[in-house]
Amino acid sequence: MLEFRRVSGGYATGEQVLRDVSFSVAPGSITALIGTNGAGKSTALRMANGLLKPRSGEVLVGGVPTRDLPVSEIARSVGFLFQNPDRQICCATVFDELMFGLRALEVDEDEARGRVERVSAEFGLDLDAQPYLLNRGTRQMVALASVVVLEPALLVLDEPTCGLDFRECMAVMGAVRRLSEEGAAVLMVCHDMEVVADFAERAIVMDAGRVVDDGPVFEVLRNEAALEAASLLPPQIIGVSLGLARQGSRAVPGVATASTVGRMADALEAAVRGDAR
């Protein structure tokens, strides 16, 4: 659905942000772009939805180079969430905000209302509420709901869980996962490594405009050299298992390689049962 082929480029100021970047995002998958501020992640997102064009290389959406498509055409298949919801919200009620894009795409009114009711219930939103009177976390959810309701083939998210509490985070990422399971390709920038570990299938590490690692999420999050190069820390449970691996722990098989709490718990439970026997 999305492919970067040796992409270099940046902004109109002439600054070179991306340097020879290549990766792809397949339908039905969630891919996380991770790295520190200034690594080039947000620039890559803006290339993905056509707001920026590469100086060299190609960005393809649905097999078509973004250079050959106006942003209005790309927007029909690419949903984009800005990091700041106030840059995205423009209507007086949550209902109108969620209906705005559907009306622009001329979706049948009954179908549009059905989508709005389903997504608003999924996100726990009051359709009569005024977005600008809501707190930061709820405005973020409104902005994302206005993208999710469009059911885009490619969902591009810039820090989707920023400013959310745990309940809101789980609701938002649950909706993102649902779209992915229904066939959408998802590319997200996320600083929360726990969210990355819980929801992404793949992770791409960026540093200074270049890709320094790209692969299955748990392989990437256990690549200490790549994470250190990008000034990142792994999720807590992976950090614990890596620490045990460095100490050469063999007392409990599986603990030193566990990538999730569930796998760590399974390894410990298996060890306890073994001791009991």
UniProtKB/TrEMBL annotation:
<dbReference type="GO" id="GO:0016887">
    <property type="term" value="F:ATP hydrolysis activity"/>
</dbReference>
<comment type="similarity">
    <text>Belongs to the ABC transporter superfamily.</text>
</comment>
<dbReference type="InterPro" id="IPR003439">
    <property type="entry name" value="ABC_transporter-like_ATP-bd"/>
</dbReference>
<keyword id="KW-0067">ATP-binding</keyword>
<dbReference type="Pfam" id="PF00005">
    <property type="entry name" value="ABC_tran"/>
</dbReference>
<dbReference type="InterPro" id="IPR027417">
    <property type="entry name" value="P-loop_NTPase"/>
</dbReference>
<feature type="domain" description="ABC transporter">
    <location>
        <begin position="2"/>
        <end position="233"/>
    </location>
</feature>
<dbReference type="InterPro" id="IPR015856">
    <property type="entry name" value="ABC_transpr_CbiO/EcfA_su"/>
</dbReference>
<dbReference type="GO" id="GO:0042626">
    <property type="term" value="F:ATPase-coupled transmembrane transporter activity"/>
</dbReference>
<dbReference type="GO" id="GO:0043190">
    <property type="term" value="C:ATP-binding cassette (ABC) transporter complex"/>
</dbReference>
<dbReference type="InterPro" id="IPR003593">
    <property type="entry name" value="AAA+_ATPase"/>
</dbReference>
<keyword id="KW-0813">Transport</keyword>
<protein>
    <submittedName>
        <fullName>Cobalt ABC transporter ATPase</fullName>
    </submittedName>
</protein>
<dbReference type="GO" id="GO:0005524">
    <property type="term" value="F:ATP binding"/>
</dbReference>
<keyword id="KW-0547">Nucleotide-binding</keyword>
<dbReference type="InterPro" id="IPR050095">
    <property type="entry name" value="ECF_ABC_transporter_ATP-bd"/>
</dbReference>
